[in-house]
Amino acid sequence: MAETIQEAVKRRRTFAIIAHPDAGKTTLTEKLLLFGGAIQLAGEVKAKKDKIQTRSDWMKIERERGISVVTSVMTFEYGDNVFNLLDTPGHEDFADDTYRTLSAVDAAVMVIDAARGIEPRTLKLFEVCRLRDIPIITFVNKMDREARDTFEILDEIEEKLALDTAPVTWPIGQGKTFAGTYHLAENAVRRGDAETERTPVHGPDSNRAAGLLPENDRPAFIEEVELAREACRPFDADAFREGHLTPVYFGSALRNFGVRDLIEALGAYGPPPRAQEADSRTVEATEDRMTSFVFKIQANMDPNHRDRIAFVRVCSGILQRGMKAKLVRTGKPMSLSAPQFFFARSRITADEAYAGDVVGIPNHGTLRIGDTLTEGEDILFRGVPNFAPEILRRVRLGDAMKAKKLKDALHQMAEEGVVQLFTPEDGSPAIVGVVGALQLDVLKERLNIEYGLPVDFEVSRFSICRWIDADEQAELTRFMEAHRGDIARDLDDDPVFLAQHEFSLNYEAERWKAIRFTTVKDYQ
Ligand code: GDP
């Protein structure tokens, strides 16, 4: 019998992993896919990374700097659940890409290195999740190495993140003695991910719990479990879903501990696809009619085809292969002839996708980040953010004959979210803006390789960019007219104010109280 929309939605879990570089995100991803049956052998994710690097020239940057620039999505099944794991770039120069990806998930797994605790990137990414009320499951990784005291780790999470913690499992030993995980509420033990089931025991002093440890370590373990049960908060599903409490799991992605505990937790408590705010109403995931939005565009996934894939998160209904969707920004119909699902090493044509699913839609520049697709309804999803760039540059091109080509290329790069593009009102050359310097390297490399445009960057006289608006349109117009040389338009034609330095921005903000200067813009 065919699955109903309600059933399909209930099974889905769409999430991202947030972590400071080196905490073990890649290793954990690999193991999730392995246990989810999406790959046969661990090592695939790394292998895939390497392959992409050698295949694609502009990815040289990634190879040289040893970082992952690409965001991708991976689908796998475990038990009754369908998981969509959205990968985020580890390097902070691509932070805006990460933030956009987080707009498309319903939950996040926060990976912490057991010896290092909460690190700066973890904190930053956590704050983004909190702004969006994204529920977080914590995975304390690398328990097979010398780790901090378990209570200390929990305290640090509570203090640094102002987030309640509820340890669901407790590590049996740590470092060399790490032997498994103890489920506090169930009184059950898993000696590693090779065991598909947890074994019930009568208590922490059982042979199958404390008995796994060297004799000297047993009393401390038994005491810790008892203390944890008395002193720590119990898991509360509502507080978790509201983003106030994080369940904590312990393990070692490398040595195959705790990963199954984590997937099962996502399946059991992870929220199914949430209702999504659009401009005029809230869209429920189980509605019949398809709605979706684009949160990511990726070019050159397959250089043989020079393709451009728009990653679309389905918000309601069924996205069916061959259907005609309406691109709300332009009002034009668009045929979804070849939507794709992505797995660890392959992609397949997606016949049907439900809320929470992420499909790739090949296109030649029709779709942009933030676009909404529907079955006809005129609604726009908000919430795929745009961040004010921290670095502004003019692009210098040796060959003036290619100015038009450069303009088109920059436009495309901006639509893909590689850079932001600002067109000054006074007719001077366009300005590109990025959040991290590495984005400029990617732009330069891609303009050269894909468009044959060798460019350099020139410092612009501006260093700050803010979107501007006001309650009274007349006031905004007055401000813009008074500052014509400092006003530009972004890709959506929204005005920005360009300032030379913080001082001049503050000065203007002081003088023009009716104008709002903002650093984040939700795509319309
Ligand atoms: P990412 O930068 O967060 O993607 O981290 P990786 O998954 O690439 O891991 C960083 C390093 O930590 C690699 O050398 C991994 O082999 C190692 N690593 C990851 N998980 C564990 C673990 O559970 N235990 C130990 N001992 N090492 C780990």
From TrEMBL:
Record: residues binding GTP: 87-91, 141-144
Chief location of this protein within or outside the cell: cytoplasm
SUPFAM superfamilies referenced in this protein's UniProt entry, alphabetically: EF-G C-terminal domain-like, P-loop containing nucleoside triphosphate hydrolases, Translation proteins
Protein localization: Cytoplasm
Entry's transmembrane regions: none
Start and end residues of each stretch annotated as Disordered: 192-213
Entry-linked InterPro entries: EF-G-like_DII (IPR053905), EFG_III/V (IPR035647), G_TR_CS (IPR031157), P-loop_NTPase (IPR027417), PrfC (IPR004548), RF3_C (IPR032090), RF3_dom_3_sf (IPR038467), RF3_GTP-bd (IPR041732)
Domain of life per record: Bacteria
Residue ranges occupied by any Tr-type G domain in the UniProt entry: 10-274
Entries under Pfam families matching the protein: EF-G_D2, GTP_EFTU, RF3_C
Keyword GTP-binding: yes
Keywords, comma-separated and alphabetical: Cytoplasm, GTP-binding, Nucleotide-binding, Protein biosynthesis
Role description: Increases the formation of ribosomal termination complexes and stimulates activities of RF-1 and RF-2. It binds guanine nucleotides and has strong preference for UGA stop codons. It may interact directly with the ribosome. The stimulation of RF-1 and RF-2 is significantly reduced by GTP and GDP, but not by GMP.
Family: Belongs to the TRAFAC class translation factor GTPase superfamily. Classic translation factor GTPase family. PrfC subfamily.
Protein name: Peptide chain release factor 3
